Amino acid sequence: MKHAKLQFNVLALSLLTASTAFATDGYFSHGYGVRTQATGGAGIALPQDSLAAASNPAGIAWTGNRIDGGLSWFSPNRSTDITGNGVPGVNGSYDGNDKKNFWLPELGYTRQLNQDVSVGIAAYGNGGMNTDYGKNPYAGFGSKGSAGVNLEQLFISPSLAYKVNEQHAFGATINFAYQRFSAKGISAFSSASIDSKNLTDNGNDSATGWGLRLGWSGQITPELTLGATWASKVKTGNFEKYRGLFAQGGGFDIPGNYGIGLAYKVHPQLTLAADLQKIKYGDISAIANPLANLFAGNALGSEKGAGFGWRDITVVKLGAVYDYSKGLTLRVGYNHGGQPVPASETFFNILAPGVVQDHLTLGATYKVANGGELSFSFTHGFKKTVNGSNSIPASFGAGNANVSLSENIAGVAYGWKF
């Protein structure tokens, strides 16, 4: 236990200092915890470790006393092609990978206080987005230097779960969110901002906020478990250094989401799981407002200022867990999300091409001495390109921006039961 607590403290410190850009389902993570990542993100009815509260707080009623810590390596491949533009030197291909590697720590702790009540705390990267173009796609329009954005989000989530009986539990989580943002190389839009001094190249800015997640988990039959979860929008403070970029003076709240899940034990050694999740990107002005707002008289940073034009998405998560032996568990999964970026909105989404839709996942857990469990996962996000459709305004020379993204994620975690 002393060793476990030391590792927990070290991971807590690393969470505050590590890069946590993580764009899978839009810019949310496809799953929370290395084990859940390996099952395609399916975890609403399938708690597998002390990170379960990030998917459904009711799940910690079934995880027992444990500590888990892990680290994931995230490597996205971002690119843009601009075609049909009338400004000299703009057409061409642009590589957004000047920064290639990101590290995402995670940790969780759960404890059963008595037969009915369990508590826990989880810390994890909720999502993020990064682009870094050494060759600036907006240079032909007057921007200087390299271009890109960096958005990182960290959640720290204390949870409580209560068993109504041996089959059903309810849970609640308070989500404390810390997010950090920076943008550079977009001075071409200065004349379209309410505050050009707080539009670009101002380094990192941060904001914090609070939200709520509720959940239920129920064992309907010995084989079938169902779950449901809902998370509120997290209202955060504004990014004051970027009040001339984001709508409502730098507002960038974190979208709410909700989902349902099931887990079915088709064999004593094999469990299948599925989640259906809705992410409400369309409720956040800075994310959802279309670029057309700019040409309707709404400057960047204003109440109805232009944003990235993202839509709500629905995500399907499928996973399987096979207990190969007493010491080895195997996992596989698939994740498919809707497309948040419309073809008409690709010009601004050069900065935020969160367009990947399909992910294949796998992983395993090996039990070691003294109750320890070593887990790993691997996720491949298949390359997706959204080709623009009249996406570059005539005042910027018309034509289209075609944005692409693929990604690889590898994670390792260690858990202790006590």
Automatic annotation (TrEMBL):
UniProt key word Signal: yes
Subcellular location: Cell outer membrane
Alphabetically ordered keywords of this record: Cell outer membrane, Membrane, Signal, Transmembrane, Transmembrane beta strand
Name of a matching Pfam family: Toluene_X
Chain coiled-coil ranges: none
Annotated signal peptide: 1-23
Membrane topology: Multi-pass membrane protein
Matching InterPro entries: OMPP1/FadL/TodX
Family (UniProt): Belongs to the OmpP1/FadL family.
PANTHER family hit by this protein: OUTER MEMBRANE PROTEIN NMB0088-RELATED (PTHR35093:SF8)
Protein's recorded name: Outer membrane protein transport protein
Native species: Undibacterium rivi
